[in-house]
Amino acid sequence: MTSLPATSSAGSSTRSPRYLLLGVYGDTWHNLGVLEGETAVAHVMWGVDDDGSHWIGGLLVDAAHQGRGVGRATVELLLERWRADHRLVRASCHPDNAASRGLFASLGFVETGEWDDDELVVERQL
After folding, report:
1. What's the CA gap between 98 and 19, in Å, rounded?
2. pTM of the predicted model over 0.90
3. What is the DSSP pairing of strand 54-61 with strand 110-116?
4. N or C, which terminus of the chain has less Cβ within 10 Å?
5. How far apart are CA 56 and CA 91, in angstroms?
6. DSSP element (H, E) containing 19
């Protein structure tokens, strides 16, 4: 398990640790559950495409834990783990999801103009 710094709703550090639990789903997508104590607060899937790019998919943060930095910390941890690979990282989000679009934009992702089903594709080079 990998420890994340915990944040309060104001973004300051607290003493309650968060942990990531890694699971594998087939050969393409991997599950990552985000726990605060023993409570699951978020889930994300990630995978590696045929071209070597890394994908972040299905980032879901429990409504009671949104706005507290859980999604940001999760994406930042993935980016840090992949930084040594200097890979292209992609994600997709629904065009009406302003919070998700804002999160990815604030982390340096740009919209590509491409679509994955009904979701916008964003990307960032590490």
Report:
1. 26
2. no
3. unpaired
4. N
5. 5
6. strand 18-25
